[in-house]
Inverse folding.
């Protein structure tokens, strides 16, 4: 062959096609075929495909973490089931304990006949009239409405404490009606389903013999030394803020029924008056029926705000103070 032969005559006939394919592969992704040394040209991946592959990769990488979370979740459910089982057993224990309760024959009455003293009326000229008190004496125009609510809460507490007491008493609410009943209907509709309690519209004198009644009032000159479980003890259902001093004692005298005060002064020194809330009197009696010790009963119930201290300790502290004062004077 002469050197002047054109180079085009030495190229295979399909050269233009191969060259076009190569140029196309420059714009594509090369991937080796499995089992061969050849490469396969693929179209570039879209953003959606790349995200999908990334998620798949993350899913594979987090397989162990997911397995560990499943194990922890199963263990948590197991502990919760055990906890519920323990709580159920405690409930059964309480039920068994409840069967050992010995109810007392003592009757304890909350006298709700003071409803008219806890009525707030607004007169035509806008001044408050509160149970016979002028606006000047009734400092807060809403005080009586609040008193009814407080009495309701105290009765709720009495009911709850009696239900779980070791020696529950025979609980009565008498003269039930008026604002108290309206407040209970509005804020505690479940009261109609209360158990182990007699809620009566009648006055206590219509339900219990006169000779069995003892009105508990701090103004009585008689002091209880022991509870007679054949008696029916009456607690005045009145939150009066000292507006009606001596009213329960006068009521007992007028009706010719027995009256007495708890032996608080024999065991306790207090910063305030000896007038206790309805639920405190109720709880002290429940505590005494269980402990048979007045001192223990008082200090297991009285709130700290009353500043109650054992009588002996109070006298000892007073003697020490007087001694210090005398030493100061002598110097």
């Amino acid at each position: 062959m002469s050197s002047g032969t054109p180079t085009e005559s030495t190229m295979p006939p399909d050269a233009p096609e191969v060259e076009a394919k190569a140029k196309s592969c420059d714009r594509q992704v090369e991937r080796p075929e499995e089992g061969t040394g050849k490469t396969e040209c693929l179209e570039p991946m879209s953003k959606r495909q790349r995200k999908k592959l990334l998620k798949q990769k993350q899913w594979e990488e987090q397989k162990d973490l997911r397995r560990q979370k499943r194990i922890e979740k199963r263990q948590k459910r197991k502990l919760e089931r055990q906890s519920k089982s323990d709580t159920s057993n405690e409930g059964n224990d309480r039920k068994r304990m409840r069967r050992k309760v010995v109810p007392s024959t003592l009757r304890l009455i909350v006298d709700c006949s003071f409803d008219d003293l806890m009525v707030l009326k607004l007169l035509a000229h806008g001044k408050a009239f509160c149970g016979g008190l002028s606006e000047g004496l009734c400092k807060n125009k809403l005080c009586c409405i609040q008193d009814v609510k407080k009495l309701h809460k105290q009765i709720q507490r009495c009911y709850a404490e009696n239900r779980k007491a070791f020696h529950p008493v025979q609980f009565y609410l008498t003269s039930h009606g008026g604002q108290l009943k309206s407040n209970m209907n509005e804020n505690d509709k479940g009261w109609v389903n209360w158990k182990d309690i007699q809620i009566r519209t009648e006055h206590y004198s219509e339900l219990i013999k006169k000779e069995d009644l003892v009105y508990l009032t701090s103004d009585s000159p008689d002091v209880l030394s022991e509870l007679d479980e054949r008696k029916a003890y009456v607690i005045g259902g009145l939150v009066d803020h000292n507006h009606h001093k001596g009213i329960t004692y006068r009521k007992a005298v007028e009706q010719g029924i027995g009256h007495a005060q708890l032996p608080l002064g024999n065991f306790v020194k207090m910063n305030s008056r000896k007038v206790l809330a309805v639920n405190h009197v109720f709880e002290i009696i429940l505590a005494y029926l269980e402990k048979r010790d007045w001192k223990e009963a008082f200090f297991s119930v009285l709130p700290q705000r009353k500043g109650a201290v054992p009588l002996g300790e109070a006298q000892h502290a007073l003697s020490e103070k007087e001694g210090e004062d005398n030493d100061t004077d002598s110097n």
Summary: Residues 1-16, 18-30, 120-143 have pLDDT under 50 and may be disordered. The longest strand covers residues 107-111. DSSP finds nine helices and twelve strands in the chain.
